[in-house]
Amino acid sequence: MPGPEAGSCGEHFIRLLGSAVEWIDGLPIGNGRQGVMVCGGASEDVMHLNDARGWSGSAASAHQGPRISGDHARQALDDARGAIAEGRGFDAGSPLQALQHRHSQTFLPLAALTLKYSISGESIQGTVERELDLERAIHTVRTDLGGDEELVRRSWASRPDEAVVIEVESPVPLEIALSIDSTLRVLARESAESSTRLLVQLPSDVPPSHDEVPGSISYDGTPGASSRGAVVVQWRHDGREVVVEGKSHMVGVTRCIVVLSTAIVDDGLPLPGARVAAAVAVERADAVWRRGIDEVRRSHEAANRDLYTRVGLELGGAPPSTPTDQRVSAVAARGLSTDPGLAALLFHYGRYLLISSTREGSPPPNLQGIWNAQLQPPWSSAYTININLQMNFWPAEVTQLSELAVPLFDFVDLLAQTGSEPALRLLGTSGWAAHHNSDRWGYALPVGNGTHDPKWAFWPLGGIWLARHLQDHREFGAVSAASVEDFARERMWGPVRSAAEFALAWLREDGRGLHTSPSTSPENAFIDQDGRVSSVGRSATLDLSLLRDLFQTFDELASLLNVIDDPLVATARRVWPRIPDPSVTEDGLVAEWEDAGPDEDPQHRHQSHLWFLYPGTRPFPVELEAAAGRSLDVRGNDSTGWSVVWRLALRARLRDPLGISPLLRSMIRPAEDQDGPFAGGLYRNLLASHPPFQIDANLGFVAATAEFLLQSHRGEIELLPALPAEFDAAGTVRGLVARPGVVVDVEWRRGELVFARLRSRVGEKVVLVRYREAILRLRVGSRAVVVRGEDFASRLGGP
Fold it and tell me: Domain span at residue 462?
């Protein structure tokens, strides 16, 4: 019987007809450091360029005033706790606002490169086709010139060479006008033969567009106040160059190659610092020419394929040649069952976007990945760590992209350093704490300028959630058996122990038991006993779930590393069994707080109180499953993009395919047809809408889809635990990873398993694996079997 690897999936192309009219119509390419939104047209291509290090401000931004003293902060906390203890949660909000700092910094556009094409002085007017090949990571624009002739442009962002390459090919001689501009402060524009350099200064401060605070985008020339950058463009062609109105144009061109390189430095005076960046960027561009474009293209494709082809998913559907946006509209009208392959394409696209936006040595992808064209983008295009940054990395472990999580681990290390000061000064604790907004510099303070609602500004457990990803990395077998202790000691122990130190200090105890106070449940609110909307209470369920999980991880690490004389370990072991489980309200829902009234918004986009179900993995009382299902029923099926994705993953964990189907409809629909601030959908290019665009839903959809097909958090491997009706007809998936490091291939027909193969992540042979308390246990529907290496195939019908 053929396995899932037989044949090839056709769902690796995004195809669009017509020019990219605006930025959100473009198609993204990236190499983890450089991101380009390519807006192709009939006679013009605009390449909107970002560098992952291109943020406003600096590490010093968090130290700008106003800053509350430790004594005043402690008094504010005492006042808030007193109000909560007396049942006056509404009155706790004002003291917590006193803890607020200013804002995190902003991810910025670097420049825009424009290429204009004409023939004999006339602009080209042909029809346009645009294509993004996800496996090769190459973007192509074709303009019909009549007959069988077409103008073709290909572009890609090479990871091995850290440069963007654009190839232009035409059957007739072209005139090409090239220009590059930036909305940043331009320090110098330097041109030479077939090259130009743009030297820029990044702002020292960019307030968020949603914040009504005094001040605007500002520049400070003081060393260390902001970064300096350079964009280098070099080109070669088979025509000649002429000067038109003082600008260089290429004439008589049938083939042209453009190389685009960038660099960002954080030190030095503006212009000298930018020249240092330029020297780095020039060397990167020069290296491309030395290697040769064909070799650069080959190594680029090989590097992308190495990551991209580790996992495959095939569901069938419309012919891949059908324009992608037309497929989305058709599915919205007739249902995903008519084209389930569109879900496979969205799955592959999410993996492509993760590969393109995160690599070791660069900051992790932000709210928009590494693609942004605005100086004041939505929510500063920063890091929101009460769900969104975490969701970006949900697919990393389960789809064999574990190495792409390294930037997140580096970010955790950074926050563990920067978060110690606010933990001590504002919260009066040891260890480290991070609130809901952050940036490249590791901003860890509560934001809000003293005026914003604590429901989103005050939440000091962001670091604890982030630290969970270190444990996921270990549980999915991303670390070899020979290296697991080294990873635990070198990457996990420091930030996890320090987070536990904060958590133990933050927990409080009274006659009613352990609790957290003040406590918010990210961005949600409830109606208090006096009928007022309150966002501050006691023991949010998310707090308790995160703390329990952290202490158990800390305990496991201590055992693994044979730590026997650390008093913090002993304290955590005593405490975590006493942390209450989530509770169930009188109407059968999972309570979001202890002692809180009804939700202000029962259909709120956050599902923080259900964290224990997903992404949590620890056992919980069985009655909570039914309460979680009812809670999701109340939340509904329509929300912003990332919220729909979270609900998909939660329904999968409940093994509820009937609940998955309406959520798939909410996910796969044209974003342009939706109204309201929290109505998601997909743009023409399949990027997900919050609205506006946020990348978390694209990345999270990969992980949610994997949960339909494979689960391994209960101590056994479950195949097809929540297969939705839209996927029933037939499908294959290969390369997904189950805990504790088992690669799984599955094929099904009419909803029934017909083939499965399991192999160790470190080799092709299935090895005897102990997972939690059992030899590897496998569940297929209601049947549970114990798999012992060589006999797994006969039990599952394989060869």
Answer: 401-624
